[in-house]
Amino acid sequence: MHEAHISKLRHALVEYLRRKDEVWLLFDNLDKGWKSYGLAKNDIFILRCLLDANRKVTKTLRKAKVPYTGILFVRNDVYQLMVREDPDFGKSSRAALDWTDRSQLKRLVVERVRAGLGLSKSEENENVLARVMTSSVQGEDSMDYMINHSMMRPRALLKIVSYARATAVNKGVERITAECILRAVEMNADDLLVDASNEIRDITSIPDTIYSFLETDSVISKTQIRRLLESDGVPGTKVPEVLQAMMYAGVLGIVRRNGDDAYIYNYSYDVKRMDILLNRDEDPHFSVNLGLRPALK
To answer: Of the candidates 69, 34, 41, 37, which has an alpha carbon nearest to the alpha carbon of residue 54?
Structure first.
């Protein structure tokens, strides 16, 4: 690509970057469509090469006193598989970006409302929310209700709030009512259904598998799921793959022996822990995520 020696090219690049305040190099979407239960050797090789190249770039630029940050974004399950296959991978600095803390999701909304209304930091979070929305929905705290229907996804939660606000404006009410939130949850469920369906299609190469749960019970056994998927054309050999993808996407949670639902985000997106729960029962039961139920009726 270049007739000049690499050293000359590197020198020219460093001299150019010295004019910048800082440099960020971000790699994203590399694992789009990768399986949630295993990686090919080529996939691991790509990631190892990128990490190695990033370390060399970091060393070169920092030696030239150029502030540099290189980040490689991968799914948490891919990271775990990488560490298992390549122990050196675990030596790289890691930051988890998955949202598993409900209080952080609530704060996300509170701070946006606070900024939008120009309120001071001293005002209590509950008072901030009380300015714009009702305190409860069907006997449940309003924020908890919306978070429960967001699949613990910040984007989905913000969509619910946005839909609720738009509904309130259309109805001509000054604050978001319980009716507005209920309507917003239904609208967001349609978006979640499309997004989750696309995610599972990217991983399994089988489209529209979530639609097999249309008008079924919200709690369903593994045997029933197999029958549903096979009746809708999913090959029997592909059912475990689809099931694992649905668990990782948060579409399905495992019903624990105490009756609680356990979704992937309750276990910090650790697929291995979900598999252990799954293998404890001969015919485990699954729960369809609350956020998808309105769309699946």
So the answer is: 69
